[in-house]
């Protein structure tokens, strides 16, 4: 099954001039790769909100998730600290990628290099009803390894 793509408006910011827009690397890619709009070095253990040089308007009922790239994670220990990052449909500021260096070496983020990927997703909202008691279940309050290894 192939879902129809959703339309996302993108505004390029001045410091994003000349950069490739987020794009799918292959016809079947789930995420659009996004490039850094600035260069910086992440020391081991450091983190930074890396500029992308664009802002977006997501249609109502959707979010965009900011996810790490597995190659950067495996080779260099670079991940998105808040993965999956959440871009709200009502956010109009610059999309930023919160990169963290969990590796042992400094990592150079280079303007124009792909640092993360964007995946749109439908949003299921909820209402909350406060109650005195919850229904019984087999699990009950067990969690965090209660069923064994
Ligand atoms: O990886 C991310 C995560 C968030 N954002 C932007 C878009 C998002 O809509 C906004 C708020 O994100 P979130 O709700 O995760 O952060 P918060 O700490 O709750 O901030 P706020 O109080 O602004 O909601 O920040 C990014 O650009 N990149
Ligand atoms: Mg928030």
TrEMBL record:
Identify the keywords attached in UniProt to this record, alphabetized: Hydrolase, Magnesium, Metal-binding, Nucleotide metabolism
Domain (dUTPase-like): give its ranges: 20-148
Top-level taxonomic group: Bacteria
Indicate which residues the UniProt annotation says bind substrate: 69-71, 82, 86-88
InterPro entries given for it? dUTPase, dUTPase-like, dUTPase-like_sf, dUTPase_trimeric
Indicate whether Magnesium appears among the record's keywords: yes
Reaction catalyzed: dUTP + H2O = dUMP + diphosphate + H(+)
Q: Which cofactor does it need?
A: Mg(2+)
Which molecular function GO terms apply here? Answer: dUTP diphosphatase activity; magnesium ion binding
Q: One Pfam family of this protein, by short name?
A: dUTPase
Entry-linked CDD domains: trimeric_dUTPase
* UniProt-listed GO biological process terms: dUMP biosynthetic process; dUTP catabolic process
| Involved pathway(s) | Pyrimidine metabolism; dUMP biosynthesis; dUMP from dCTP (dUTP route): step 2/2
Q: Give the EC number(s) listed in the UniProt record.
A: 3.6.1.23
Q: Which family does it belong to?
A: Belongs to the dUTPase family.
Q: Which HAMAP family match?
A: dUTPase_bact (MF_00116)
Reported function: This enzyme is involved in nucleotide metabolism: it produces dUMP, the immediate precursor of thymidine nucleotides and it decreases the intracellular concentration of dUTP so that uracil cannot be incorporated into DNA.
Q: Tell me what this protein is called.
A: Deoxyuridine 5'-triphosphate nucleotidohydrolase
């Amino acid at each position: 099954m192939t879902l129809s793509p959703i339309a996302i408006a993108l505004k390029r910011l001045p410091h994003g001039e000349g950069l490739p827009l987020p794009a799918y690397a292959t016809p079947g890619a789930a995420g659009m790769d996004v490039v850094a709009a600035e260069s910086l070095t992440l020391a081991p253990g450091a983190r930074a909100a890396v500029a992308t040089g664009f802002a977006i308007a997501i249609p109502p009922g959707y979010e965009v998730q900011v996810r790490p790239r597995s190659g950067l994670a495996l080779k260099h220990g670079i991940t998105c600290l808040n993965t999956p990052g959440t871009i709200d449909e009502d956010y109009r500021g610059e999309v930023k990628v919160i990169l963290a260096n969990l590796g042992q070496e400094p990592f150079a983020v280079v303007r124009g290099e792909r640092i993360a990927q964007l995946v749109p997703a439908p949003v299921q909202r909820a209402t909350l009803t406060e109650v005195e008691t919850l229904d019984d279940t087999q699990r009950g309050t067990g969690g965090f390894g209660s069923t064994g290894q």
